[in-house]
Amino acid sequence: IKEYHVLGVVKDFNFKSLRDNITPVVMMLSNNNGALSIKLEGTDVKPYIAKIEHKWNQLSPNQHFEYSFMGEDFNAAYRTEQRTGTLFLIFTTLAVVIASLGLFSLAAYAAEQRNKEIGIRKVLGASVSAIVRMLSKDFIKLVVISFLIAAPIAWLVMHKWLEGFAYRQNMQWWVVAISGAGAIIIAFATISTQSFKAAIANPAESLKSE
Predict the structure, then answer these.
(1) Are 195 and 107 in contact (CB under 8 A)?
(2) How far apart are CA 58 and CA 52, in angstroms?
(3) HEC secondary structure over 8-28
């Protein structure tokens, strides 16, 4: 049995992907020339590569010189997650834009259908804010109902995805709440443009045919 002198014990740390649990690791000082780790400062590292290769050939003349950057190796470990995040961002943006266009069109159609009603309400003294609120509340209700249906599904999908990691951040309730509030704000901003346009229109134009 070979004895070793322990120089120190450190706290567990991740030396693999965060998908895996931390396992014991032993680092030993030896004369093995199979690998070399070097810390470089600066952005232009090309001049150093040639010097390192020259020194490597002196230490291990029979072993081919190959190198990689630790930052790139770490990025490669989570490249799938980065691509997934980019795709989700793109499709989420497209979904928000398409949904906003749909809401804008529906709001314009609803305002046109209720054009005479809006004119009568204005003649009877209804304020612009009251008319905007009247035209917007039905759409906001639909957005809230949609969010209540989608939130549990999104929570479940994210929870299942995070289960693939041994070390992960738990989903907080306020993240879902902020996303719901954002959806309502975007929907209201989209609808209110048409609602406000209909509310400030001259009621004589909509009632002149009556």
Answers:
(1) yes
(2) 10
(3) CCCCCCCCCCCCCCCCCCCCC
User: What is the total residue count of the chain?
Assistant: 210
pTM above 0.90, yes or no: no
| pLDDT tens readout for residues 74-109 | 778 778 888 888 998 999 899 989 988 888 888 888
Q: Which residues have CB under 8 Å from 56's CB, separation 6+?
A: 36, 63, 65
Q: Helix or strand or coil: residue 117?
A: helix
Half-sphere exposure of 135 toward its Cβ, with a 13 Å CA cutoff? 34
CB atoms closer than 10 angstroms to residue 118: 22
Q: Are 81 and 89 in contact (CB under 8 A)?
A: no
Reduce the DSSP state of residue 56 to 3 states and report it.
helix
Give the C-alpha separation, 110 to 195, whole Å: 9
Using CA atoms, how far apart are residues 140 and 27, in angstroms rounded to an integer? 60
151, 180 Cβ separation under 8 angstroms: yes
